[in-house]
Amino acid sequence: MVRVLYAVCVHLLLAQLTWCERSLTAHAQKMVPDEQRLIRKLMRGYDTSARPVFNASQNVVVNFGLTLIQIIDMDERNQVIVTNVWLEHEWLDERLTWDPLDYNSLFVLRIPANKLWLPDIVLYNNADDYTRGYMPTNAMVTNTGRVSWLPPSRLRSSCKVDMLNRSEMIDLSNYVTNGEWALLDTSITRNEVIYPISPAVYPDITIVIKIQRRIVYYILNIILPCVWLNILNLLAFCLPPDAGEKITLGITVFLSYSIFMLLIAESMPPTSEFVPLIGIYLTISMAVTSLSIILTVIVLNLHHARPHQRVLPNWLRYLILHVIARLIHCKCGPTPKSKRHKQDSSNSTAQKEPGLRLVNDLSRRSPVTELRASRLLRRADPANDFCVYPESGSESRRQAVMEDMLRCLKRMVARREREDQDAATTTEWQDVAAVFDRLLFIFCLVVTILTTLILIIIIPFSQYNRRGEGIGL
Predict the structure, then answer these.
(1) Which residues form the signal peptide (predicted)?
(2) What is the DSSP letter of 327?
């Protein structure tokens, strides 16, 4: 009897303890938030290294997207672009399901991403090290096991820069415009890659962001100064050869182009695949400037040619002074060959006739007059100092005086003819230099205008009209 009473008491005590425990558990459950209870339940025994499928032969389908927020920087020289993006990941985790009615209609749960299985998506063309992870954020999990993870990230990726402006969408609703670069187009392409080391198929997503430099800044700071330098280079041909500043101005313009080339080279990638139009334009302008300096040296050499060293050939005189000068409307000095010879012959006759008259007059003069005349001739021409004039008044001596005076006069006339001929030859060489300088000016002007029109206006605007994307330099 005692044993029966003891058993009944123990049974009642255990029942009382069980009821108290259940009451305390129910009360404790009422004090814990639903999300906390659900997270404890879902994370109990959860392994982040295991794929979120119960059947090992089943694939995990991950939907990937990208939202472009801002273009931070574009390093053209190193061909690296830095962007702020949101990486959109979405997949189904079969282990994260629950009944919303058990948790007061809780349909969506936020769980830290580092506690969940995450897809191993890697940026192939990453310009940084791969030790950097994503920003720690929460993932949104629905009661059906659908996981959405949108980590914001700053991507520093290598990209090939096309300097010649050649050709599923990215979300641009939150895009912030950049003052240096204009966003032209975006696209996403999915590819499947099979590597030789593994027969498995690896999905590959290629995201294309097409941007273009805004050109207003570069027009004001590079293109217009280059045009002014071209104008200064052409003005060098307008300087007279005697000024001595033609080569100085050309070298100054050439050094200015060199500085601009250094500025362009610092911002352009060191690659030979694509060459920017502005680089081609500067190279051609430097070539024209170098050619103008070389040709200016030739013009100065022709202008200061010494007549006793070179004589202008007849064919060159006719080609430049008669044919080319008329074509380019360049006026030359009045020194044709016929006029020069006529002038030389008239001067020679005019100089010989006074000499003859002087000789005839001396035959009728006295010895004193002869002596005075000889002194005057010596003053007029130092070469007459070598002439010997007898001071006696005999007939033979007067004849000798007249012969000496005639020889002195002939030397004076010959020297004057040589001076006139040298002056005419010098003038002809100067005319040749002027015609050559005008011809070079026209050549450089045509090359400069064509280069500017083709490289700065025609090609960029033709690309703009064909693609409707923008003007690229």
Answers:
(1) 1-20
(2) H
